[in-house]
Amino acid sequence: MKKQFLFMALPLLLIACKGNEPTPVEPAPDDTTVVVPDPEGTLYFTETDEQIANPERGFYVQKYYESNNLDEVLDADAAINIRERSHITLYLHSYYLTDYIESDIAPEFLERLEKNMNALRAGGAKVVLRFSYKHDESIYAKPWDATPEWAMKHIDQLSPYLMKHADVIYCIQAGFIGVWGEWFYTTSYPQDPAKDSGYETRWPVAEHLMAKTPSDRQICFRQPQFKIRYLRTHGMDVNPLTAAEAYQPTIKARWAGHNDGFVSSSSDVGTYHNDEERTFWAEDTKYTLMGGESCKKTKYSTGENAIKEMETYHWSYICNSYHPDVLGEWINSGHYEVIKRRLGYRFVLDKATLTQAPKGGEAFQAEITLHNAGFAAPANKRDVELVFVSATNPGEKYIFPQTADPRFWMAGEKRIVTLSCTLNEAMHGAYKLYLNLPDPYPSLHDDPRYSIRLANENVWEPETGYNLLATININ
Question: What per-residue confidence (pLDDT) applies to 10?
Fold first, then answer.
């Protein structure tokens, strides 16, 4: 047990407690359903349709940072305003290394990266990162990218900044190869090769990026074929990730996807080449990130179809400005607000059963039932805590960490999560009981902007980032 003192020298106790891995609720067949009444004292919660500024999900703001304009930086106050006005907590920062194709990245460029990372943290936001060399596929813009040797040198230069600021990185798009970093229009690698052997010069760059970036962050590739080809040519299992394989520091678990041709053609503008790739991403994205943007309005761009596709491929994030015709279609059809609510995770608390007449020094249990109304589960690790705060003396706080993992609270599923601990012997009187889902990084753990808010009425405490379950009396 660790003791700390908070406010009026009263104890803030951080106690390691048991918490089981959540399991899905199994529905009984309709004709044989046996109605078992909820235990006495069960608490029920009301869902809200409010738009919530939760971390690591949702619409994102895209910013471009050119090597010939080093004065352009992110403004933390602007990030705060966007968060408050539009409930947006996510950015995509595209860094163009145009002037460094055959040289080291200038110190001033790296300093700008440092400033932007600090501004994200101050603004309560996180970032999708992409590094590439050109955003013009015309012949006049050649060369379109750097050689593998220079790309890996640039990754070496960027690595210390990415490691230092891992807390505000949501994910990293593979980048570096091809125009826009999308691995297609390229002058330094074979372009769009049909055979696996044509990708051999790309893999060292991807592997180097894996080795030089935070091991708890996923790397997103523009098409599913890239991950499939890598797994196949390196003798790895080509089946989609399983729950047992997920969230490990392996290539199979860390390689994710991004689709920048979303609902813009039958193949999403070349994103998919066959049904095998679609099936792979539909399963693999249960445990890996999916996001991106649309690029043109077509008959596939309806809001109804977009929601269907987002459900199938577990979408967590999408651009808030591109393509404007597609976004306009969703707004006009009434689907935009639904998509905005459901991108990523959306945890709704249904009910909770608590230990009745709890006593200090004895076991306590909270069995909660919740469902994920979003398109996806969280991709990055998330802490789970039961927090008791004295109703008469807010400085008296007890925190009980749990082992439950929200990354397995899957989209469209209902879960029963059992949280438990042994109450401290000094606990007596009335306490507010909270569920806290904070960011595990120490730099963000106590920042309420980075805690997950449940999609319920009358539970959120914005000052702390806690979700109120009940006020209980401890004997």
Answer: 36
CB atoms within 10 A of CB 73: 16
CA distances from 226 to 32, 193, 277, 292 (A): 47, 11, 10, 16
State both tokens at 9.
Answer: 């020298």
Say how many CA atoms lie within 13 Å of 337 toward its Cβ: 6
Q: What span, in angstroms and rounded, lies between the C-alpha atoms of 193 and 200? A: 10
SS3 state at 368: strand
Residue with the two structure tokens 């109120």: 468
> In which order are the strands placed within the sheet that holds 23-24?
23-24, 414-422, 363-372, 347-354, 43-44
Q: pTM for the whole thing?
A: 0.92
Q: Is 374 helix (H, G, I), strand (E, B) or coil?
A: coil
Strands annotated E in 248-290? 255-257
In the chain, ranges of CATH 2.60.40.10 domains:
2-50+346-474
Task: Find out whether 355 and 367 touch, Cβ atoms under 8 Å.
Answer: no
Where do we find the tokens 């009940």? 470
* Spatial distance between the Cα atoms of 306 and 319, rounded to a whole number of angstroms: 14
pLDDT value for 31: 57
Mean pLDDT by 10 residues, the chain (475 residues): 34 42 48 77 96 98 98 97 97 98 98 98 98 97 98 98 98 98 98 96 98 98 98 97 98 98 97 98 98 97 98 98 97 98 98 97 98 98 98 95 98 98 97 98 98 98 98 97
- Residues of each domain in the chain carrying CATH 3.20.20.120: 58-342
User: Which pLDDT belongs to residue 5?
Assistant: 32
Task: Give kind and range of the element (H or E) at residue 275.
Answer: helix 275-284
Q: List Cα–Cα distances, 259 to 128, 198, 283, 316, 397, in angstroms.
A: 13, 22, 15, 12, 45
- Measured distance CA(468)–CA(461) in Å, rounded: 7
pLDDT of residue 4: 36
**CATH architecture of the region 2-50+346-474:** Sandwich (2.60)
Fold of 58-342: TIM Barrel (3.20.20)
Helix extents (H) in 87-187? 107-122, 148-164
At residue 35, the pLDDT reads 76
Local structure of 403: helix, strand or coil = coil
Cα–Cα distance, 193 to 203 (Å, whole number): 14
Sign of torsion over alpha carbons 43, 370, 83, 329 = negative
